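ok trying again, last paste got cut off:
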Amino acid sequence: MQVLLDGLLPRLFPDLPFLCVAHEGKRDLELSIPRKLRAWREPGVRFAVIRDNDGGDCVQLKAALRQLCDEGGRGDTVVRIACQEMEAWYLGEAPALAAAFSMPALQNLGRRARFRDPDSVLQPSAQVERLIPEFQKVSGARRMAEQLSRNGNQSNSFRVLLESIEAMGQALANPPQGGLV
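nice, full thing came through this time. structure:
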């Protein structure tokens, strides 16, 4: 996920400063959320926690992550879930997938019934590997970071993530005016 976001966010949001903090898996992420949020002291910073769903219950997972953010004293943290896996975002934008892997045959993938709702595809990473036998997660993330767009993706979880990041950027650029009246 970090490789994709490190390549994608500066391209889509060039004026937004960000830092992706890597974790050694989902368990490490969950254990570190309250501690890291509590310890971060830089004023004006906003946080987003982004995690694959991996076949779990999205609502329960989001609630559990939200609780961890609250424990860390940062109830304003944005929590977003990639349904079911980050690779669903790739399936959600067939032209980007076709361009990234120089496979024009994938251009109309989104017209197939099984790929119309990429967030409902079970094991999207396995589907991508089936479509692109040479696919590797890290190099694939780099390629897709260069191709994914803000408006062309059929994945709702991808669109909601980008909308949230855009809103965070706007909030940082336009902080509320305070002071005495």
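cool. DSSP finds eight helices and two strands in the chain. The chain has one domain: 2-173.
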